[in-house]
Amino acid sequence: xxxxxxxxxxxxxxxxxxxxxxxxxxxxxxxxxxxxxxxxxxxxxxxxxxxxxxxxxxxxxxxxxxxxxxxxxxxxxxxxxxxxxxxxxxxxxxxxxxxxxxxxxxxxxxxxxxxxxxxxxxxxxxxxxxxxxxxxxxxxxxxxxxxxxxxxxxxxxxxxxxxxxxxxxxxxxxxxxxxxxxxxxxxxxxxxxxxxxxxxxxxxxxxxxxxxxxxxxxxxxxxxxxxxxxxxxxxxxxxxxxxxxxxxxxxxxxxxxxxxxxxxxxxxxxxxxxxxxxxxxx
Length: 282
Known about the structure:
By secondary structure, this protein is mostly helical. It has helices at residues 2-11, 16-35, 62-75, 79-88, 92-96, 141-161, 182-194, 197-205, 224-235, 240-247, 252-258, 263-279, and strands at residues 103-104, 109-111, 115-119, 122-126, 136-138. The protein folds into three domains: 2-46, no CATH class; 62-224, hpI Integrase, Chain A; 228-279. It has twelve helices and five strands. The longest helix is centred in the middle third of the chain and has 21 residues, at 141-161. It is globular, with a radius of gyration of 23 Å.
């Protein structure tokens, strides 16, 4: 039955990673039954898990990041959410669960203390899944300034809505204070920003021919903003330990395994810098 479940889910288009999560959850449940004396052994241990199929990572380069953020600021109510994702590397759930009390805008730091997601129509706030995920992330000045503007805007909205404002203390929320819908953000806004629709529309009005318009950005996932953050850090020569701490990975080796595509460039730069330092030439 377990093997058939694996076969059915893979045939239905579920990823190997998702099916592996199914088996992890099932194994925990069956192990509890073994501990309670209801079963003799855990039959999930006899099932071979499908191998992980790592998809090719999609990231935005520096120029694409600038285009994306400019388009977001031009046309999106969530532009500060996107800015925070790119400049901190925080997960979407961490950003949606971020509270003002988790921020110190004087010191310029954010403390990751909870995540937010929806499941079966329920709103769930949960602690980060690991100790490493519960972390402090330094914020660039440009993000601190935008968050200060956002805080002032929220104060005005709170006065406008009055007692109907649902104050969860969230940094990124709907205009009435309710938590954001991650799925709706991606479907209604994020993809439109990636398409540079606002910029392309303005240029059309100015008479720019269709074949001269800037091409839409790659169709990445929201999570790929996190990957873009890490890749840009590696490209500017940051130490893997710094990247690991910002992302909240359990180990440095995990970080290097995920972003191994950035390592060859780091090695070339390190070799060139060492040669220049010892012998005065690049």
